[in-house]
Design brief:
By secondary structure, this protein is of the alpha+beta class. The strands form six sheets. Strands 1, 2, 4, 5 and 6 form a five-stranded antiparallel β-sheet that branches. Strands 12, 13, 14, 15 and 16 form a five-stranded antiparallel β-sheet that branches. A three-stranded antiparallel β-sheet has the order 3-8-9, with no helix packed on it. The chain starts with a helix and ends in a 10-residue tail after the last helix.
């Protein structure tokens, strides 16, 4: 019985093919291929192309070295280390090597990815080493030019943008600056493809641009390029400033369409400051001069007030008189701005009028709500409902500041 079992086992052993270690190499023993992921039609310049180099080895390998082509007309990036693993082929274990790469065509027309060469050291029947090289077939790719545009050409498979601040930009301590960091994360791009760091501008802020940082994260879906744009910003007028918006465009290679990124304007300010006071020694401008009709009315009013003061034996201050005329003018312009829904004029006039009256908690709250509506993170396009009515109501009939401009 035992002899019968050994006979069956020996017969089964000789029936299984063995990968022989000989000096003669069968072409089927060692294969190397290059596979290209499905490409869009048309494929445009600088779009990412993912390729896989796959080797299957039935022979024992003692040493190996994979030589890649020159990639003329391409930029390229290897996505991690070569992956070696075992699998079954015809019921027998074989070794596999897989390398993933991302290539970016820099030129247009028909481009060729040349052959890869895998230099192997094998064993013969006498366990002696000998060299053998296997080669993959070349691959051709057709590339078309990108659309004509003055914008930076930036094709990506996915884009994420974040806008972060070192602290609340509208709650700074006096004299303090704030660090702004915009992070660009682009899947399917190399770091050099990200647009240059833009210039951030503001009419009333000191802006210091830091050197940008770029790096890349290698993923199974392709390289993810990352750029950090950084600025330190400080208001120069001692109160607040508005940073202009930042925009750039990119090409979505999945949806096959151009898209635009727009980072909205941002207000930076010290504490709860809502507007800068008018300079005390500023020269009068044409915008602040009373309208001619108001001058006529002022003259008549001056005569009437003067007569009443004489009759009552009192003196009148011309400074107070002109201050009152200025308040009338600003209130009239404020009503007109509200009627026209002129947001910039409403805000400017509201802060000018506020400085002419005694401080008011209710009025300060209204002005903060106005600024949050116009410049906050969820800024809208309209002035808060009934702002004009509530603001005029908050003025009441209280006394004005002694320092009237």
């Amino acid at each position: 019985m035992v002899r019968a079992f050994y006979a069956i086992l020996l017969a089964a052993w000789w029936a299984v093919p063995v990968w022989a270690q000989t000096s003669t190499v069968d072409p089927d023993d060692l294969t190397l291929s290059v596979t290209v992921e499905p490409l869009p039609d048309p494929l445009m310049r600088q779009e990412m192309v993912l390729i896989t180099i796959h080797g299957i080895y039935k022979r024992h390998i003692t040493l190996e070295s994979l030589e890649q082509p020159d990639f003329e007309g391409f930029n390229w990036m290897q996505l991690g280390q070569d992956h070696w693993f075992e699998s079954l082929l015809d019921g027998r274990p074989v070794k596999n090597m897989r390398r993933r790469m991302a290539v970016f065509p820099d030129e247009t027309g028909t481009l060729e990815i040349g052959p890869f060469k895998h230099h192997l050291t094998l064993l013969d029947e006498n366990n002696k080493w000998f060299e053998h090289t296997i080669t993959s077939e070349p691959v051709t790719i057709n590339v078309t030019p990108e659309p004509q545009s003055d914008d930076w050409w930036f094709p990506v498979r996915g884009l994420r943008v974040s806008d972060d601040w070192s602290n609340a930009p509208d709650q700074l301590s006096e004299g303090e600056g704030v660090l702004r960091v915009i992070r660009i994360s682009a899947l399917g791009a190399s770091p050099d493809m990200i647009p240059p760091m833009p210039e951030m501008t503001s009419p009333s802020a000191l802006i210091f641009a830091h050197p940008e940082k770029r790096l890349v994260d290698l993923t199974s879906r392709g390289p993810e390029a990352i750029a950090f744009w950084r600025w330190t910003v400080t208001p120069t007028n001692g109160h607040s400033a508005i940073l202009e918006p930042i925009t750039f465009s990119y090409f979505d290679t999945v949806a096959r369409e151009m898209r635009e990124v727009s980072i909205s304007p941002q207000r930076i300010a010290y504490g709860d400051v809502v507007g800068a006071p008018a300079p005390e020694n500023a020269a009068p401008s044409g915008q602040n001069l009373p309208h001619p009709i108001l001058l006529v009315i002022a003259g008549v009013f001056s005569f009437v007030i003067g007569m009443l003061s004489v009759m009552r034996g009192k003196a009148i201050s011309m400074t107070s008189f002109y201050g009152q005329v200025n308040r009338w003018k600003l209130l009239w312009q404020f009503r007109l701005a509200v009627w026209r829904n002129d947001k910039a004029a409403i805000r400017s006039l509201a802060h000018q009028i506020d400085r002419l009256y005694e401080p008011s908690v209710a009025r300060r709250k209204l002005l903060l709500e106005l600024d949050n509506q116009l410049f906050g993170r969820s800024a809208g396009d309209s002035v808060p409902l009934n702002f004009g009515f509530q603001f005029r109501k908050s003025l009441g009939s209280g006394a004005t500041h002694a320092n009237v401009h």
